[in-house]
Design a protein that fits this description.
Shape: globular
Radius of gyration: 21 Å
Helix content: 40-55%
Order of helices and strands: HEEEHEHEHHEHEEHEEHEHEHHHH
Largest sheet: 7 strands, mixed
Strand order of the largest sheet: 9-8-7-6-10-11-12
Low-confidence stretches: 1-11
Distance between the termini: 46 Å
Length: 424
Amino acid sequence: MSKLSYVFDERTSAWSTYLQQIDRVQTYLGNLSYWIDTLRHPKRTLIVDIPLQMDNGSICHFEGYRVQHNLSRGPGKGGIRYHPQVDLNEVMALAAWMTIKCAAVNLPYGGAKGGIRVDPFKLSEGELERLTRRYTSEIGIIIGPQKDIPAPDVGTNSKVMAWMMDTYSMNLGTTVTGVVTGKPIHLGGSLGREKATGRGVFVTGCEIACRENIKIQGARVAIQGFGNVGSEAARLFSEAGANIVVIQDHTATIFNKNGINIPDLLNWQIKNKKIAGFIEAQDIHAEEFWSKDIDILIPAALEGQINTQRAKNLNCKLILEGANGPTYTNADDILEKRGIIVVPDVICNAGGVTVSYFEWVQDMASFFWTEDEINKRSDKIMIDAMIHIWEKSKEKDCSLRTAAYIIACERILMARKDRGIYPG
């Protein structure tokens, strides 16, 4: 379970950022722009009260959400976030980005997202389980393997998914493994799922780096966030010959100009649950993270990290968005003017939802693949999607983000158009 908490010095509405991204792509959509308002309105929003009996006998109430943004291309897909800053605005934006992401990678899903405003690290395991089971029962009216399939996100993990799957199954009276993804392997989970998002960051990053003549061998890399995504990306880039020189998590920002030893740091993190105190790197001020001389930046934490000031200070060639929505729209403009290439979240971190799709398919068929098969299938989907987006950006002379949105919005709105409106 990852624990991330950053101070946003320029925090604006995540939903507003998403709407600005939609506004920017409208002029590229031709006749399909007639339907674009469908992307500006979530299809369904559920807010639930979750009463929880604490271990001391008291009752606490927590607010939970599940948003289904768009289901034109298939059932909803999106994670469940447990975090003190979760609110409806954030969940709406995350659901919308899932809509775009699934379409950009051409998966047969719509976008959804859920969460509870809670600090899971302040709850005992028993309290966390009771919270999860009550939340699952409350949103059970709109989730299901053909309706909406949750997955882990910040503050949740495979154990939480197992509780969700069991609760949903008990309420139906039959085991339904396909109601969630990101489960333990022995309960219908997929091999390769935990590493999939970080692997996707690496695969898409290498593809664009090759096309833009940026060498991975010897590249200086900075990574914000060292959970499943950041740590796996760090491992793969390090093995490819890159030097991971600066890493930041909620406990510290560490720097080594000659490159941080990633295997040693991973062992330290497993033992200490943090990167703070790692003796093979020096502690630096958190804001220095954004001004180091690097080649590749990987924001793999929470949304809203690259603001206008940081965009002006960055000294890199390539940004790989391992997190959802890490870059503000105005900052995007600055980065584009400065010639810094941004591989957007909706393709860069789509490895997770791609392998979630594989898990769902395997659950439906009760037939499971090897990790090598999964990695090969995932890599092909990610690379094909990345090439399509890169070619579209050259064709339209636009950023990779705009190109990804053009492709995704065309697919979503074509489905909306052809399905029509019921009742007419």
